[in-house]
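Q: Sequence in, structure out?
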Amino acid sequence: MQIFEGQLRFGIHAGQQNTDFPSYLAMWRKAEDLGLDWASVFDHFLPIFSDPEGPCFDGQTLLAAMAAHTSRIRCGVIVTGVTYRHPAVLANMAVTIDHISGGRLELGMGAAWYELEHEQYGISFPPMGVRAEMLREAALICKSMWTKKRTTFEGKHYRLKDALCEPKPVQSPSIPLWVGGMGERRTLRVVAEVADGWNTFLMPEEEYRHKLDVLAGHCKDFGRDPRDIRKQLGISVILGETEAEATDRAKERAAAMRTNPDELLQRFMAVTPERCAEILRPFRDLGVGDFLMLSRAPADERTMELFAKQVALSLQG
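A: Exactly. Output:
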């Protein structure tokens, strides 16, 4: 499956922590009003990179609500932790959201990583190698249940017998399936075998080139063209017309996100739209099709506007 071949897309990746429902909904609606192409939730039960005592909505149920409250924007999740839900249950949940959205869902899956959630909830957190095996089997199960009348699966971690998943997705032939992560030996191999798209976050250009080479090697093993796998980058950025404005606004965002300004500036670029486009242009040239800015409620409307109107326009030119 080739997802929106040749089309650059821009959006927000909006973790639903330290917020309330009206503020979160306002952020998605702002993204849609700006003409952005994508908005996504994360799949966590506790805030990440923040005070873990704060509020955090469930991702899947919130995604269903966002699908019902929007009309055009693509609805994503980056990424569903494989340890949290049985894949047959997840497959049915995804189909439901796809119907609610009128065929706008894109499902991301990953091997899960936040050990604190597992400890608090009593969820098993096996070693990474085991979680990667679970991820592969879960992705195969979801794709089968979305496309076949019945699914029988005998894996190491999951077993299904004549399993139904009805109705099928609105999207044909299937819901786009993303796999997120950077692990070269396991995760990128799952991407090569199963995924329609690969999601990761901004890294140095040479490191990204190396990841692409590793992915291409795995694709060769499965007889796939790596160009058929869509690439997506998440970017932590705060924009201002000048760098001084961007830095000042980063301090304001730190207060809104309940974090230390110095820590925020270690994770976020505070730059102008021109500089942001300059940083991202080599990745576009390497085949990245989707650029998502990390967003948190309350919405950073200024950064969203500059990203939609200046960064996106520059990269599309």
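Residues 9-236+290-301 form a domain with the TIM Barrel fold (CATH 3.20.20.30).
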